[in-house]
Amino acid sequence: MNQKTDIENSYEPRVKSCESLVISHQSSVKDTEYCDWKLAVLKYAKFALFSFAFFLSTFSLTAQQQRFPKPEFDSGYTQPSPVTPEPRALALEYFDVLVLLLVLSAATWLALKSRSRQGILWLSVFTLAYFGFYRNGCICSIGSIQNVTLTLFDATYAISLTALLFFLLPLLFTLFFGRTFCAGACPLGAIQDVVVMKPISLPKWLNKTLGLIPYLYLSLAVLFAATGTDFIICRYDPFVGIFRMDAKFHMVVLGVAFLLMGMFVARPYCRFLCPYGVLLSWMSRFSKWHLSITPSKCIQCKLCTNSCPFDAIDFPTNEKEVVKSGLGPKRFITYALIIPLWVALGVFVGAQSHTFLSKANPTVYLAELLISNPEIKNDPDNIDVQTFMSQGKTMDQLVLEAETIRSEFFTGSMIAGGFMGLVIGMTLLNTVVFRKRQDYEPHRGNCFSCARCVDYCPVEK
Amino acid sequence: MTNNDKLKLAQNIALIAGIFCTAVAILLLLNFWQVSKSDPIESKALEALVQRLKQEPNNEELKAEIRAFDLLARKAYFNSQWQVKTGAYLILFGAVVLAFALRVYYSSKSKIEEPDAKLENEIAGRILAQKGIIVVGLVVMALAVVAGFATVNHLKDYDTVSLVAENEANTPEEQIEMIEVGQNPVTGNTPSEPAVDEVVEQVNQEETAIAEQPGAEKEVAVETPKEVVETKAPEKTAPAASGLTLAILKANHNSFRGPLGQGVSYAKNIPTEWNGAAGTNVLWKSPIPKHGFNSPVIWGDKIFIAGADNSAREVYCYDRNTGKLLWTGVANNIQGSPAAMPKVTPDTGLSAPSLTTDGKAVFAIFASGDLIAFDMNGKRLWARNLGVPNNHYGHSSSLITWAGKLFVQYDTNRGGKVLALNNTSGETLWETTRACKISWASPVLGEVDGKYQLLLTSDPIVAGYNIETGEELWQVECMMGEVGPSVAFSEGMVFAANEYARLVAIDPKTASVVWENDEYLPEAASPLAYNGLLFIATSYGVLVCYDTKTGEQYWEDDLGTTLYSSPVTADGKLFMMDNDGVMHVYEFGKELKKISENELGEHSGPTPAFADGRIYIRGDKNLYCIGK
């Protein structure tokens, strides 16, 4: 409350300045009636800009208005904010967008133009400090998937421009320059990147198989966000607790475990969990200007083969072996033909498991709890039940709501299942597709553009 | 500094930072273990002290000890919080140093390795990957299917549960019905002609005593035949054991909301115009010694109300023709009565339950649980304490009597029950425990299948009880929240409603909900059902008329005031008192026709009582008799 009042107070002068602007503007118009019309337009524009900024800033403040004032203490005790991170003034939110834009540009420039691993490392440290520890890991592009999903499915939820930009900007950059966002602008990537000590190379089959998990995570995250159930990406973010220094015990364990693992299996979250990585990987495959290992022509020195801790370097194709292996057109056709079967299986599985998945929804959970344990209504310690009882909603209404959500889950789970089937089918198909490659090249989908490999290349421009 | 020195320094720093991090981590874990083992705020010792204070509420030393202990516990809690926070920052600092040192160490050590002589066989890798993808894909799908099959869809059980409950409720009720028809002497078939004659005589006597208004009678003549048709069937009912018959009841207003508590008065020539402040059509006005929210009840020439404060609980009997206070009965010296009055809220008070009378005695109950009976001349007959009701607003359920029994709905925070007491001796005839929470509603009597049932509503059940045995005949789980409004009863249908719950029309024969609605719900005012119309008065001032059969809404009138008093019908009109003391009079019909608005001149929450040519209204301070 106090904090807000301060902010409100800080806007008081703005109101005054706006008012004085109007007054001065009016008087000036009176005085110089025949003044240049261009000047007047400019003044109007300035005024409009000010009022627009003022309107935006007060809008977010009135939305946070407390219904009852909090008690004040003489001892100097200040009330902790119930929201982490505390709501920011809109101008500061836009400042975050600006910082993201700058960091993205810097990462892109460092990866593609100056080809400086050192630069990207220090940029990562800045990102970790700013978006991680200072901004408490929120807002983040990975979580913004859910905001975008929710706004598409829930008419009552309007996404903020900041969240939308955090979602779109990295995708846009990736579409042109590869995953430079992962290299230097993502705090989750940064915290893992700085702890990479002695990375080991994982076999291809393990990389491919574990690579299915992000798709599963993405489909579940979208399903849960679309049904208004939960933002699981944020809830199970292993590092946000470290950024905020207030994680629950099990989340600390999870975060530390990821970091310890990350010393040897580089960036485990980015490679085998990150749902935003799926979208970035799609974009990056089409990227026009992607980081290359060599600045000019590959001399096949093989020095870079072990340079990538993420196993994202593709080697030249050995055509003889490919022909010999029998992974030819026959298998391609077989795998292509069974894709619809995978999709159908996924749809079936989705339909089967929708009841199970929908139990994560608080409304469905409460309705089922009250149906299966009617005596829980008398439990004064069950806050969910007591809140429901005090709302005066009838059981019928609750069950109806729960049934609606479950039917949404039925459709959503089938789509998610079908998507997973398609992903499995396509990944299989990909294993028999050979692209003719003569040089050592970064895998466009998996490369984080961290520029480690660049240092290994002896070729100079 | 040579590369070797650099290596050594980085190694040492990393080692120290590593040891430091481990030590802090161990300390943090110990702290976590200690806090989770014994939360200082949930201390058992503190709990024991608080328990002791409950027994010795005036022990100042103990209070000081508890405060000191509580402060200590809080200090310990915040201290451990500080330790966690500081530890977390220390470990972060250590980790940053460790990471930096390790990075320097590895970068100084590393040199570009020679490329592997033999690279991983790409083809073999791809074939393995195919197997891996197929296996993992199938395992994930299989797990999802198994999870799906292992999950119980409880939502599907919802309808089944209510259906089973309905079936269970139906079966025993039907069985009881069959047995009781033969056993119960009070049946709908017993002729009751003598009783009717008796009442007609009594009514005539009363009418001669009251100054009649012939003009008023003409006005209501049109409505009268309707009521005769309506009331014929119940009149068949035989006189109850006490000699009390429905016809006698109809000539009086012996309980909250009139005869049987149904909100229907059979009095005639009811005035529709008055003004309390100006004295227009006010026959008399008498001050009420002690405050209370109970509604007046009438028997013969006497009108009864009660009032209470922390010093005394009293019953007042007035002459209803002159307004003279005839006698005051004091409810004192009752065994088991608490020394101090229970805490109640001002909007309920210590004397919210209305009295009831059977013509021989008048019965009163107070928030203390004191139940007392006086004869019609103020002589104390019997008194007992039912146990102080645990009620956070104050006990408010009114009394009702029938068949020589006094019925008490006693739903408290400790559970619900209903009792029948012998009118003459006060002894408990039966007592039934109810599976419900606290309520503030009052019992209503209704005739179902030729027998009277006691109809009660509360959270969560609306139920009917055999008045002879107390057996629960049926129940429907449909209410919730703090139930204040009593049920309405008309033509064999029970109507229950409560704010934040719903309005339900229940057929007690099948214990099923015929229709329900949740648009307008009352907070305190009981619904009224009569002649195919149902009225709901919401606390935010909307009076709504529904069709009792279908639930179709006929009209609504937003009065823009607070309605706690219950709507009552009399003389073909609907009387709705608001909390400001303004009586809104309507034609009792499907169409909204407002006749008048009459100001009392003071606030009024109780429901008015009616006698031929008269309305009796309890204001905040005075009792009014309206008439011409």
From TrEMBL, chain A:
One of its GO terms (cellular component) is plasma membrane. One of its GO terms (molecular function) is metal ion binding. PROSITE patterns: 4FE4S_FER_1, 4FE4S_FER_2. It comes from the Bacteria. The chain crosses the membrane at residues 44-63, 94-112, 119-145, 157-178, 205-227, 247-266, 332-351, 409-434. It holds the Pfam family Fer4_5. Keywords: 4Fe-4S, Electron transport, Iron, Iron-sulfur, Membrane, Metal-binding, Transmembrane, Transmembrane helix, Transport. Residues 289-318, 436-461 form the 4Fe-4S ferredoxin-type domain. This is 4Fe-4S binding protein.
TrEMBL record, chain B:
It comes from the Bacteria. It holds the Pfam family PQQ_2. Keywords: Membrane, Transmembrane, Transmembrane helix. The keyword Membrane applies. The keyword Transmembrane helix applies. Residues 281-390, 461-518, 530-586 form the Pyrrolo-quinoline quinone repeat domain. The chain crosses the membrane at residues 12-33, 87-106, 127-150. This is Pyrrolo-quinoline quinone repeat domain-containing protein. It comes from Maribellus luteus.
